[in-house]
């Protein structure tokens, strides 16, 4: 009888509908209705925003994967990662404009070697920079309480911003020719129903997809990827099995930095300008939100979260019927971050842990 009496409240609690899934479902339905009405009223604006959102999501994905790689192996939010991305943009801009002297929109045979060269330089520089940050700032604190490396990450972010400020100054570094022509061609790739897809968007996707596929292959299929996954699961057990944990963690930071460098190049090619505070105050936090939304520590989740955030930003800024507009983009993105942390901290594809994340 006593056991039965204890079971009754538990059964009632299990049968009682939770308000959180209901609110989430209601929000999704309202969003679908809003998008459907905008699609009916202006199909061209809708599909144009869709293509732009995919392009933005591709850039965010490269940054978000860097966050999720480091968190997956160390459970550390590397807040300096956004500033490493910013340095990738600045190094790319310097290489393309000052070193290569390329002219915007002229000569595809010259454009592609310059872009590929800038990609290699940016990825190498940011990878080595990120690995050096791990060796100098994070490794000595590996056994310290979690708050210590977190504060150190914030400090490294400020240091990188100050270095960039001293190097390039407070103004935007622009990747344009003196006559204002951008580097990437804006010619039409195809046009369907009045929606034109241009080369500057396609080039971003062409450069992003192979990088993402190579990362997935490295983590899932190679020996180094197995070492990364083993270290993420249990560092002590990995060390007992003969894995060099320090080297694996350094390689993870190196890999995350190369992704940030690639994202920096794509950003300056697409948006044509970069500034010292871009990584910390803007793109870095947006990409971090994408990683949390998809499930931080989950690689496919980071890509999914980045695409969702990119689409949300593009729809909010490009659609015309009852959308808040560009002034509200950051508020919407960080509201999503708060809601995810409160109601589903494991994200869309993450797994709930005993700690709740």
Features:
357 residues, mainly alpha, two-stranded antiparallel sheet, disordered C terminus
Structural overview:
With 357 residues, the chain is mainly alpha-helical. The chain has a domain at 48-276. Helices cover 73% and strands 4% of the residues. The protein contains 13 helices and 4 strands. The chain has helices at 2-15, 19-41, 43-74, 81-99, 108-138, 147-168, 199-221, 223-233, 235-240, 245-271, 278-294, 299-318, 329-343, and strands at residues 173-174, 188-192, 195-198, 273-274. The strands form 2 sheets. It has a two-stranded antiparallel ribbon. A hairpin with a 2-residue loop joins strand 2 and strand 3. The longest helix is centred in the N-terminal third of the chain and has 32 residues, at 43-74. The model is unreliable at 13-17, 103-108 and 353-357 (pLDDT under 50).
